[in-house]
Amino acid sequence: MSWKKFLTSPVFFKNLALALVIVAISVFGVMKFLSVATNHGEEIPVPNLAKMSLEKAEERLSDIDLELHLLDTVDYNPAFPPYSIVEQDPLPAVTVKDGRKVYVKINSGGYAKVVLPELVQKTYRQALSTLRALGLQEGDVKYVEYMAKDVVLEVKQNGKTLKAGDKILKSSKIDFVLGDGKTGFQDQEMDSINASEQLEPAPAEEENAE
Length: 210
Description:
The protein is α+β, with helices and mostly antiparallel strands. Helix content is about 35%, strand content about 30%. The protein has helices spanning about 5, 10-40, 55-65, 125-135, 185-200, 205-210, and strands at about 45, 65-75, 85-90, 95, 100-105, 115, 135-145, 150-155, 160, 165-170, 175-180. InterPro entries: PASTA_dom. This is Membrane protein.
C-alpha cells in the first residue's frame, strides 16, 4: 500500500483518532497531577478556634489538613475559659492552602498576682493611677476626719487592711480610706480663737490702768 492510499485509508484515521485520545488523556492526567501537587485552586477557610482547647483545635485543623502552632499564653481574660484559645492568625473565614500553620494564643488559667506598693500617705489620684497600672480596680471609698484631704490613710480588701508588699490577684477591687480635710481647719480655727483671747486685755487690768 502506498503512503497516499494509507493516509486516506480508514485504518489511518482510526489510528490517528486513537493517538489523539491517548494524548488528550495523558495531558489531562499530567494537569491533574500538577494541580494536586501544587494545591492549585484549592483553598480552605480557616475555622473559628475561639474558646476551644488546644486538643480540640488541633483535631479540628487536622481534619482539614491545617496545622496548629502555639505562640504564647496571654493574661487571663474572664470572657474565655482557662487555657482556651483567645487569638488566632489567620483570622476565621480567611482562606488558605492546605498544610498552612494557624498560630494561636491561649488564655491563662487564672489571674496573676501583683505586689501592692506603698499607697498610704499618697494622694488619692496618685494611688488610683498606680492601682490601675497594676490591673487592679477601685472599690469603695470612705472618708474619715483627717487634716489632709484625699490623702490615703488605709487600703483594704474585703474588710482586711492591706500593707505594702502584700500579693493580691489582678482585677481585685481595692477599697480606700481617705482623709476628709476637715479636722485641720477646725484646729486652725480654734487656735486662732485662743490666740485672740490671749491677746485681749482682761477687764480688771483695763480699770486699774485708768
